[in-house]
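ok so i was messing around last nite and threw this chain in just to see what happens. nothing serious, just curious
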Amino acid sequence: MKILKVRPATRHTTEGIADEVLFNRLLSMERKRSERTGAPFLLVLINFERLVRTRAKRSIEDIGAALAASIRDTDVTGWHRNRFTLGVIFTSLKGTSRAATRTAVSGKIQRLLGENLHASDIGNVEISFHFFPESDETGGDCIESGKVLYAEQEDADIARKAFSVAKRSIDIAGSLSALLILSPVFLAISVLIKMTSDGPIFYRQRRLGKSGAEFTFLKFRSMYVANDSRIHKEFTQNLIRGNGGNPNGVYKIQKDPRITRFGRILRASSLDELPQFINVLSGTMSLVGPRPPIPYEFECYQLWHRRRILEAKPGITGLWQVHGRSRTTFDDMVRMDLQYIRERSFWIDLKILAKTPFAIIGGHGAY
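result:
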């Protein structure tokens, strides 16, 4: 699907320049198209912040109009941020290398700047290039580029901050209540783990939380102590890369030889997840959110996959757990996480929490 340039006649544009709301909506649509098809696109951002309050302000409008008039009908020009960052979405690279595309686009923009700004002003303009999907050819920090390409969410939004405060309050109250109420269950499981296999009660693993911060992830141990971790590493990396994994698209290994007999019961019932209430209480996790990846999983992520750990704190449960669990393919799991990040609210969290016990009792997709 190609996104057509919005014409000046629409009420959302000025001289062919889309306003901020429309431009970022189109950017979101183009990103989703690229996620589905794998076809790359380029976002160029021209930051005029240093010039906004100077005599050059009128020239900024002229540059935007000139850009809109000079690009293809399939490309989009608009305001990306607060009318001081102008964006251009080049929707089809037509097989041209990214280096060649960058050189050609940079040359055109530099010419327009030279025609509309004084030489002393040009040095105050910042130009950045963001290719999607990201690759080694583009360089830079994938997470930082991701924040630009997923620009429809703002950390500074007042409503989002209020939601974060409410969410943390619920996390503290919920995790404390669960730890107190389930303390007899914790004790019983601990005894059975020690009776049925040698090793510690808890399984500790390094995981990636919000913005890639590492933390210690807790579970009841369901595996033998002496096991080969390469089994899981190879399986998950192949599954994420689309090179195999389970032929049914299941995210977890079926009939995993590393799992103890009692561990199979823990996993099928999701009781092995209970220690994560400690993670929630400590603030490294939330009751609801994306599942935290292992570092070697993250190494295989495409840029759009990485969005799932940029903004949201990882959770014990989420859309993935209540809609398919391990029966869901990895890409579909990520799409559910991104849907939650876009739409998350107090009521959505409550709905997910209410559905989680039924998903656990049903046991579908649990291994």
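not much to say yet. The radius of gyration is 24 Å.
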